[in-house]
């Protein structure tokens, strides 16, 4: 099993797919990495030589921000917005959608499970 950027990538999948298991590398970056190193698209991870794995590891460390560093930077950006007290920061602080989505309905992913209002009873006839 190849270990790149602190992540065990699956060995029986194609290199393009398995590189995506690293946080911060998507389809475009994976294709770019394989192109720079001359690795064919249909090559599987278990077919890579130790030298190729080392080259991939060095390229990612040198040119891409991935895993812990990327997560830390994103957390710091959100914390900065919250400390500034700007609109986006307030939305993050309250746990509401940040990018202008409606909240009257359909914000359950961000707001959490619906909580019933106490004391409100149905009127029976």
Automatic annotation (TrEMBL):
<dbReference type="InterPro" id="IPR018269">
    <property type="entry name" value="Ribosomal_uS13_CS"/>
</dbReference>
<keyword id="KW-0687">Ribonucleoprotein</keyword>
<dbReference type="GO" id="GO:0015935">
    <property type="term" value="C:small ribosomal subunit"/>
</dbReference>
<dbReference type="InterPro" id="IPR027437">
    <property type="entry name" value="Rbsml_uS13_C"/>
</dbReference>
<dbReference type="GO" id="GO:0000049">
    <property type="term" value="F:tRNA binding"/>
</dbReference>
<dbReference type="GO" id="GO:0003735">
    <property type="term" value="F:structural constituent of ribosome"/>
</dbReference>
<comment type="function">
    <text>Located at the top of the head of the 30S subunit, it contacts several helices of the 16S rRNA. In the 70S ribosome it contacts the 23S rRNA (bridge B1a) and protein L5 of the 50S subunit (bridge B1b), connecting the 2 subunits; these bridges are implicated in subunit movement. Contacts the tRNAs in the A and P-sites.</text>
</comment>
<dbReference type="GO" id="GO:0006412">
    <property type="term" value="P:translation"/>
</dbReference>
<dbReference type="GO" id="GO:0005829">
    <property type="term" value="C:cytosol"/>
</dbReference>
<comment type="similarity">
    <text>Belongs to the universal ribosomal protein uS13 family.</text>
</comment>
<dbReference type="InterPro" id="IPR001892">
    <property type="entry name" value="Ribosomal_uS13"/>
</dbReference>
<keyword id="KW-0689">Ribosomal protein</keyword>
<dbReference type="Pfam" id="PF00416">
    <property type="entry name" value="Ribosomal_S13"/>
</dbReference>
<comment type="subunit">
    <text>Part of the 30S ribosomal subunit. Forms a loose heterodimer with protein S19. Forms two bridges to the 50S subunit in the 70S ribosome.</text>
</comment>
<keyword id="KW-0820">tRNA-binding</keyword>
<keyword id="KW-0699">rRNA-binding</keyword>
<dbReference type="InterPro" id="IPR010979">
    <property type="entry name" value="Ribosomal_uS13-like_H2TH"/>
</dbReference>
<dbReference type="InterPro" id="IPR019980">
    <property type="entry name" value="Ribosomal_uS13_bac-type"/>
</dbReference>
<dbReference type="GO" id="GO:0019843">
    <property type="term" value="F:rRNA binding"/>
</dbReference>
<keyword id="KW-0694">RNA-binding</keyword>
<feature type="region of interest" description="Disordered">
    <location>
        <begin position="96"/>
        <end position="125"/>
    </location>
</feature>
<protein>
    <recommendedName>
        <fullName>Small ribosomal subunit protein uS13</fullName>
    </recommendedName>
</protein>
């Amino acid at each position: 099993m190849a270990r790149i950027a602190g992540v065990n990538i699956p060995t029986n999948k194609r290199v393009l797919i398995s590189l995506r298991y690293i946080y911060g590398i998507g389809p475009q970056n994976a294709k770019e990495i394989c192109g720079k190193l001359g690795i064919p698209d249909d090559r599987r991870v278990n077919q890579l030589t130790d030298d190729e794995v080392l080259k991939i590891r060095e390229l990612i460390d040198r040119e891409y921000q991935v895993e812990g560093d990327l997560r830390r930077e994103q957390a710091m950006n959100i914390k900065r917005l919250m400390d500034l007290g700007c609109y986006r920061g307030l939305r993050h602080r309250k746990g509401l959608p940040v990018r202008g989505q409606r909240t009257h309905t359909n914000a359950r992913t961000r707001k959490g499970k619906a909580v019933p209002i106490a004391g409100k009873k149905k009127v029976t006839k």
